[in-house]
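Async update (no meeting this week)

Hi team, since we skipped the sync, here's where things stand on the single-chain job. The sequence we agreed to prioritize is pasted below, unchanged from the tracker. I ran it this morning and attached the output directly underneath so nobody has to dig for it. Comments welcome in thread, and please keep replies under the output.
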Amino acid sequence: MSKRREVKERLATLDEINSVMKTMKNLALLEIRKLEMFLDTQRRVTTSIEMTAQDFLYFYPQIPAQPGHQQLLIVIGSERGFCGDYNESLVTFLNSQQLQRETLMVVVGRKLESKLLENFHIAAFIESHSVAEEVPITLQRLIEVLNRLQQAAPTKIGQISVLYYDDESEKIRLRQLLPLSLPEPELTYSHPPLLHLEPTQFLTKLTDQYLYVLLHEVFYSSFMRENHKRLAHMDSAIQHLEKDTARLRMRANRLRQEEIINEIEIILLSTEVLSANDKSFHS
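Output:
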């Protein structure tokens, strides 16, 4: 096989890889567009529930929190790769935290799972989502695991936190979900809310609803950042690939020129030999 043919086959392979990478880049862009709409709506819902909770707790601050000592940490990674240092950064941040020995950990995403297999805090691994429409399915899996851990834990789970990539700040964030950790209210309320339930019962239902809505926001935010990382990773890989392709094309052109020169030289030599033979024949 000639060198030029080897280069041509390598070029064909690079073109195929380039096509796959551009497809992955376009898919990441599509997910980002969808998530922009989801996140905007989800953040408005979260803010609305937080305002309701602030209003309630302003007038009923004496309601005791549910007793519980077990801590649980949810770590949200990626299901797919090609997203740069996304999962590695989560592991580095996690290793920098001083977790209590009895803290339980639930890891979301197979790519992150492979990096935390030996962590003794792990209580469960959960398959994650590949597109935005699958986020509710991931949440359902998570809720089932949380219910199972709550029933199996020797003491009631009293604190739930989540470690994830926050797209708004573009940083890894450790966020407490339960007990309610609300931002400081920007206004005070003159009249207590009208309740149709007992205050304790109302707070329980409000907490469940807030947790469900907040988890949606967290997962959408994390997935948005994952796709931004994947987009940047694909851009960098495509640029590197195009440089390699350009160098190979130049090499293929040089090899072709060398082949043409060799062919010309062979033709000229053949012509000289024929001319010499012709002169000898006539003499």
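Quick observations from my side:
The domain at 24-234 is CATH 3.40.1380.10 (Pyruvate Kinase; Chain: A, domain 1).
Helices lie at 3-59, 86-95, 110-113, 135-152, 199-282.
Reply here if anything looks off.
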